[in-house]
Amino acid sequence: MAFETLIVEVTDHVCLIRLNRPDALNALNQTLLGELAQAIGEASFNDAVRVIVLTGSEKAFAAGADISEMAEKSFVEVFTSDLFADETDAITRCRKPIIAAVAGYALGGGCELAMMCDFIIAADTAKFGQPEINLGVVAGMGGTQRLTKLVGKSKSMDMHLTGRFMLAEEAERSGLVSRVVPAKKLMEEAMAAAQKIAEKSALTSKAVKEAVNRAEELPLREGILFERRLFHSLFATEDQSEGMAAFLEKREPQFRDK
Ligand code: CO8
Fold this sequence. Notes:
It is built from 12 helices and 10 strands. It is α/β, with parallel strands linked by helices. The strands form 2 sheets. It has a 6-stranded mixed beta sheet with strand order 1-2-3-5-7-10, sandwiched between helices. It starts with 5 loop residues before the first strand and ends in a 10-residue tail after the last helix. Octanoyl-coenzyme A binds at residues 24-25, 27, 63-68, 83-84, 105, 107-109, 131-132, 135, 139-141. The site of octanoyl-coenzyme A has 21 residues, from α2 and β6.
């Protein structure tokens, strides 16, 4: 399916989604977020796709929600339409792993979109920020919640209150991104990480996502119980038998997602 604001290609079980509004630094408008929700929904149901990589351009992952589209809206409009809620829910509902490959600006909604992904690989050119305060608003796609969980209250407050940008090195140091790579190698590294995940059991990677995401929602005791029961239940799968047999037989496992 052709999109107006995205370039989507599937190769070797990886669906690469590139945000493509170069003239607006990939600002997130209604069309782009609607298409993104649709592309991720399609990838979720496409058996050829095991992992999704979401990226932007060298200059910007995304410079935030589209200010020109938002500026004239009223309270009643944004409240009644629950602006972007369906689209962002569709992205976070995806059960397949999503890697954000971020170069350049990831600001406001762009930073929030990256944080909706399962992990972020950043180019050394990446700049993260929640500058909504400069526009007289707060983050609205989860930034005050997700950034605080990732980097802690002090740094999150600093980012949201001053609107300053965080460079890649600080983002890695503070736990916002999983790794930083030279900009030229960003896509190679992100695709290699996606390939590595694609080789695993898709059944087990869904279980990993469910368990790790519970860490954000549940008290420790409940989260550990959830994990333990998930561990137990995976003993009902062929992939558990295959994974452990392959280890003992000193060969590579052949997972069948069963
Ligand atoms: N929205 C619309 N257009 C944008 C945006 C944006 N967020 N960011 C950049 N653009 C456009 C510029 O207007 C410009 O267009 P034109 O060439 O037609 O004038 C073009 O992209 C290039 O931008 P610049 O000329 O400004 O490029 P610079 O390299 O000089 O600066 C910056 C790059 C620093 C990224 C600068 O563009 C900037 O500050 N952008 C805005 C960043 C920002 O404030 N982001 C937060 C937006 S608000 C938000 O994300 C809230 C999300 C929550 C919504 C929740 C709903 C419930």
